[in-house]
Amino acid sequence: MAGESTVTLDDLRKKMEEFARERDWNQFHSPRNLLLALVGEVGELSEIFQWKGEVPKGLPDWNEAEKEHLGEELSDVLLYLVRLSDICGVDLGKAVLRKMELNARKYPAQQCKSSSKKYTHYSTIHELSREPLKSGNENGDENKQS
Length: 146
Description:
Layout: H1 9-22, H2 31-49, H3 64-88, H4 92-106, H5 109-112, H6 123-129
Region (Disordered): 126-146
Organism: Platanthera zijinensis
GO molecular function, one term: dCTP diphosphatase activity
């Protein structure tokens, strides 16, 4: 993986699995423990932005050390999320694509463009979002409907 320009969720999943196995940490990686660790990391990520007010895209006023620290905390969040999804048996890539499809149905661009209102504001959109998708569920299972 070193030197490659593209890293997949499966690459990260395998790396995390190997990392935990080498340290005999699987015994500690219950869904609950991983979730609590994830929440802790989100808290650390939040601390970076606390008291900064609105921060412009690209973080032009941040120095390299601040950006590196941000990257480390973002990485911690991602790694715990990937590990949690693996331990729970959720194909995160498929689940994300399904969720994006659901969000596209809840928030059709032609009706929601430039609006920050929740999908429940648009009654027809809300009803459409309740219709089952043609394939897959939140676990990425192609054979079951959610």
